[in-house]
Amino acid sequence: VQLVESGGDLVQPGGSLRLSCVASGFTLGYYAIGWFRQAPGKKREGVSYIVTDDETTYYADSVKGRFTISRDNAQNTVYLQMNSLKPEGTAVYYCAAERTIVIHTTVAEYDYWGQGTQVTVSS
Questions:
Q1: 21-49: average pLDDT
Q2: How far apart, in whole angstroms, are the C-alpha atoms of residue 97 and residue 111?
Q3: Residue 17: beta bridge partners?
Q4: DSSP letter at 76?
Q5: Partner residues linked to 41 by β-bridges
Q6: Residue 5 CB: number of other CB atoms within 10 A?
């Protein structure tokens, strides 16, 4: 079971990035997926979540209206489109998977994690 994130980069404030999370070793369509981020010196926090039906999503207040989570089960991939990025969005972004049909929003509820991808928002 493996999750691999990609798409992190250095971007100016107001810019956009799309992160990808590719799963291998299991069928992503049976799992709820969460995107989390961790800034230096801070706890890992949840950003966005999507469950297996593809219609139920959740966003942290800090990213609502700017980030969009989506999944392509045929590609075993989940995406996080991030628009209007802010400097406080600088962090390592992680995807996580849990075999459940409900949204889980805490770090402890997810069994599988990727290695993370660095997003830096700076001018």
A1: 94
A2: 6
A3: 82
A4: T
A5: none
A6: 22
Give the number of other Cβ atoms within 10 Å of residue 103's Cβ. 17
Instruction: Give the distance, in angstroms, between the CA of residue 24 and the centroid of all CA atoms in the same chain.
Output: 16
**CB of 17 closer than 8 Å to CB of 35:** no
The pLDDT tens digits for 88-104 are: 999 999 999 999 888 88
Distances (CA, A) of 30 to 41, 64, 91, 102: 33, 25, 28, 11
CA-closest candidate to residue 18, choices 8, 27, 10: 8
Task: Give the percent of the chain with pLDDT over 70.
Answer: 99
Strands 45-50 and 32-38: antiparallel
> 61-119: per-residue pLDDT in tens?
999 999 999 999 889 999 999 999 999 999 999 999 999 888 888 999 999 999 999 99
At 63, is the secondary structure helix, strand, or coil? coil
Joined tokens for residue 94:
């992680």
User: Partners of 94 in the beta sheet?
Assistant: 36
> How many C-beta atoms surround the C-beta of residue 26 within 10 A?
15
